[in-house]
Design a protein that fits this description.
- The protein is mainly α and 101 residues long.
- The chain has one domain.
- It has three helices and no strands.
- The chain has helices at 14-43, 47-74, 84-93.
- Helix 1 (14-43) runs antiparallel to helix 2 (47-74).
- The termini are far apart.
- The model has no long low-confidence stretch (mean pLDDT 80).
- Keywords: Membrane, Mitochondrion, Mitochondrion inner membrane, Transmembrane, Transmembrane helix.
């Protein structure tokens, strides 16, 4: 018998979504922690404030990764980037405004 090659549609592929989310989270955590450490070395003298800047950077990285992961799992795009169709429909509702993309 011939084997059937069934592929999961991208919107239902949880393995790919988890891989993307973990990769994004790890990168943002590391990069923002390094940025916090560098900023702490430049701006602060005491070790406590330097560690606080590292923790703040890590928190910013985790928070931004959490936000983008929620967009990945919901299947929607972030609010600050309007889709092409919403821009065209908004332009067409205003009359004779033409939008080129």
């Amino acid at each position: 018998m011939a084997e059937e090659n069934r592929q999961v549609p991208p919107q239902y592929d949880l393995d790919a979504k988890w891989d993307a989310c973990l990769d994004l989270s790890l990168r943002r955590f590391v990069y923002s922690s390094l940025a916090g450490a560098f900023g702490g070395l430049l701006l602060f003298r005491t070790p406590v404030t330097r560690w606080a800047s590292v923790a703040f950077g890590a928190g910013v990285g985790i928070g931004s990764a959490y936000t983008d992961c929620s967009y990945i799992f919901e299947g929607s795009s972030p609010k600050q980037f309007p889709s092409k169709t919403s821009v065209e429909s908004a332009a067409s509702s205003h009359g004779n405004v033409k939008v080129r993309m």
